[in-house]
Specification:
Blueprint (H helix, E strand, L loop, with lengths): L2 E6 L2 E8 L4 E8 L4 E3 L3 E4 L2 E8 L12 E4 L5 E2 L12 E4 L9 E2 L12 E4 L6 H11 L15 H16 L6 H6 L9 H21 L6 H13 L8 H9 L4 H9 L8 H7 L5 H25 L1
Helix pairs in contact: 1-4, 2-4, 4-5, 4-6
């Protein structure tokens, strides 16, 4: 397949005509753009061709790319197409929210920890976009990206079922296989691996509670119970740790934990102590929360002395 270049602003895309796909495949990228937006068609030798595919390793390791907008004509993302794009925050695909008719290769978004949304005909902050992103880098279920009922009640049910299965999984499960497969150079021991897994579970519970479209009450209770079991002052504190260590500036996390009862008179002082100058807004929120909800208890406690 003969390659040619397509230039847009300061970005250069290497392309070819892929006869199997019946259109253009993007096979490489050079540029410093933070936002990449591909058109539906590119003209080549007098013919307009639809963009149908993103080739193997096409955007591998692009460190400047933060967002990508793909046309609805794309039918294939090949192996490691966007792998190691560590600044990548989101993928937006034009359309009306119908199921993605896209063939996904191996590790398309591997090592892209910053992905926050996969928006298919919806806004980036919509529940569907956020939960789709979680199927990429938190709750690997790439089949949910291609589900025929994308965004419908049954799709959310399947997402919740996947998370329920993950919550029921033993915290140490997977460690041995990870080491044997060479995915881990044994920087973490088993307890550290288990704690990381609980933080991941806790974050997914928070994410679902904050994006609760079509969520049954029994699932809401399950996610709430998990967070309360791992809040500050519990035997393990990963629900609190994942906020401070990974999402410390997201006030919605603190508010959610407060709303479900995870912040209370017995742990709020310790929470305040955990927050440094980098979490000034959150620290101020907790101090106000204590004054508004627990000040009366403090006064009665002084009388009892």
């Amino acid at each position: 397949m003969k390659e040619f270049e397509y230039n847009s602003d300061d970005n250069r895309f290497t392309c070819c005509i892929n006869e199997e796909l019946g259109g253009i495949e993007i096979t490489g990228f050079r540029g410093n753009g933070a936002r990449i937006e591909l058109p539906e068609c590119i003209s080549h030798e007098g013919t307009d061709w639809e963009i149908r595919g993103i080739g193997k390793k096409a955007f591998l390791g692009c460190q400047t790319v933060r967002s990508v907008v793909l046309p609805k004509t794309v039918r294939k993302m090949d192996d490691w197409a966007f792998s190691q794009c560590r600044q990548l925050e989101g993928i937006k695909i034009s359309g009306k929210g119908e199921a993605l008719q896209i063939s996904l290769g191996t590790g398309v978004f591997a090592d892209c920890p910053g992905i926050r949304y996969v928006a298919v005909g919806v806004e980036e902050t919509d529940d569907l976009a956020v939960l789709l992103a979680a199927t990429v880098n938190q709750l690997p279920s790439e089949d949910l990206l291609r589900d025929a009922e994308l965004g419908g009640e049954h799709w959310y049910q399947k997402w919740d079922q996947r998370l329920q299965t993950f919550l029921n999984e033993d915290d140490e499960e997977g460690y041995t296989n990870m080491v044997l497969c060479g995915e881990e150079d044994i920087k973490r021991n088993v307890p550290e691996y288990a704690a990381d897994k609980r933080r991941r579970k806790a974050w997914l519970c928070m994410l679902r509670l904050m994006h609760d479209s079509l969520m049954p009450q029994e699932m809401r209770q399950m996610y709430t119970d998990y967070l309360l079991t791992h809040t500050k002052g519990s035997e393990t504190e990963e629900a609190w740790e994942v906020i401070v260590l990974e999402h410390g500036e997201d006030m919605a996390c603190y508010q959610l934990l407060a709303d479900i009862g995870g912040i209370h008179a017995d742990n709020i002082d310790a929470m305040v102590q955990d927050l440094d100058a980098a979490h000034a807004e959150a620290k101020a929120y907790l101090i106000r929360y204590k004054q508004e909800h627990f000040a009366v208890n403090d006064i009665f406690g002084q009388f009892s002395l």
